[in-house]
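Pipeline run #58 for the internal structure catalog. This entry was flagged by the ingest filter as a single-chain record with no existing model, so it goes straight to prediction. Upstream metadata was stripped on purpose; only the residue string is passed forward. Reviewer on rotation: M.T. Logging verbosity set to normal.
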Amino acid sequence: MEFNFKSNSPYSYMRYGNYKAKYKGKEQYLVPNIDGLLNIRDLYDMFSKMDSILVDLLNMGRICSEENDERTKFACAYFFVKQYGLLGFMVDTPINTDFMLMNEVTLKEDNFINNNCIMKTKDYFKLFFPFATADEMSYTVTNGKVVIKSTFYLQEMLQQASLNNQLIYSNFYCEKVDWIIEYAKKMYSIFKMIFDKQNNDVQEFNIENTVNKYYFSGVPYTINMYGQTPEISWQPNSLKQAIDLSFGFMICSEKNPLKICKHCGKVFYAKNPKAEYCSPQCRNQANVYKSREKNK
């Protein structure tokens, strides 16, 4: 990646080996698949994969903006989550970072979770753990500290982790497919508006309002000294927060490597700043079409 992102550890995010769909009423969720003897947990540095994460997220938004049927949405969300893990909406959406200590949680405006920006914390907790009984996953607040209670043996591995990680890395934690898709569609919409404007393919009507309205939360960081050079060590609380940060850096850069293929419309990461097509096949096909138009 061209941008010098640093994370607070080489294993800054966790994904399960597999996920499955579960329904709560008509709402479809993606939840870790723990049916096997032991579901593998993979730790990885999300910034080292941010190029592919952003490309896959934006293409998910592009596909689901064009084909909004349930099968397509699930296939796209499942592919993304299996590759990178759940987004961590639970810890990213609240305005107050210590929301678990409060009776109510205040959510960001225009969030993907709930139309109401204020919810009872107990209800908010259940929103992300709809398939867990009180014995399997619950919490208490004692002397100003949140204690996660779980009878499942895998949860014991997280007892020394931060509260955020105990929540979003839990084997009971899940997210609605629609949340993931709506987030991807919003990000793609913002990216396409900026890309089209920069390439003079669209008028300026409402672009500024749409882009300026979307809120990205601040990402905690520390400054570390390695030898003579200080470096920023980013410490996002979720995959979504890391994506928001990286997306902002990329689209605001004069050397933004994210582009839209002029032939197929796919979002791709361009190592060559002059690249207009995502692959040699698309470039060749576009040249064939141009040649046919000239012959006509």
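catalog note: The longest strand covers residues 19-24.
catalog note: The chain has a mean pLDDT of 86.
status: ready for reviewer M.T.
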